[in-house]
Structures are given as C-alpha cells and as structure tokens.
Design brief:
By secondary structure, this protein is mainly α. 88% of the residues lie in helices and 0% in strands. The termini are far apart.
Length: 116
C-alpha cells in the first residue's frame, strides 16, 4: 500500500504546500484503495480458487471411479460370455473328434474286412 505520510513529505519537499500535499496524498490513497489488492485479498482469492479446484478434482475422481466400475462390470460380462462361448466350442470339438474317431475306426474295420 502507499504510505501517505511519505508521499506528502515528498510533495512538500518538491515545493508544494503542506495542506495541498496531504490532500493529494489522501485523494490518491482513496482513489487506489478499491483498485489495488492487498496480500490478504490475494490470499483469500487463492484459498477460494484452491478450494474450487479441490472440489472439481474430487468430482472428476468420483466420475472416473464410476466409469471404471462400469467398464469393469462390462469386461466381466464379456469375459463370462466368452467363457460360455468357449465351452460351446469345446463341446462341438469333442463331438467332431468323436465322430472322426468313429469314422476312422469304421474305415479301418472296412479296410481290414475287405483284405483277402
């Protein structure tokens, strides 16, 4: 902030009347009082800003956690479906293997029967 006393002394030293110097110093202080921010003003503003940022971060974190939970549930459902699909494929492969063995044994028996 501006030191009124020091400003008025400087004005008096430069040749101005003491009353005029004090008047100018007072007017100058009043004019800039509402314009300049003090350290306390800045600290309050920083505290509010920091608080707002922390709240926004907490909201974002909660949203991210919800999204991750949804993705995890979706992945679990997809994995369960894949497990069911793999079980179906495995059953189909076993049937085909059984059919191939039966066919192979039938062909082998037919060849042995036809041999003179």
């Amino acid at each position: 902030m501006i030191d009124k006393l020091e400003m008025s002394k400087d004005l008096v030293r430069s040749g101005m009347d003491r009353e005029q110097a004090e008047g100018i110093a007072n007017a100058f202080e009043k004019a800039i009082r509402g314009v300049l921010a003090t350290k306390a003003d800045l600290e309050v503003a920083c505290t509010r800003l920091e608080s707002g940022i922390r709240q926004d971060m907490a909201k974002m974190e909660a949203g991210i956690r919800q999204d991750m939970a949804k993705m995890e549930a979706g992945i679990r459902q997809d994995m369960a479906k894949m497990g069911q699909d793999m079980a179906k494929v495995q059953a189909s492969l076993i049937r085909w293997m059984f059919a191939m063995w039966i066919t192979g044994i039938g062909v082998l028996i037919a060849i042995l029967e036809l041999k003179p």
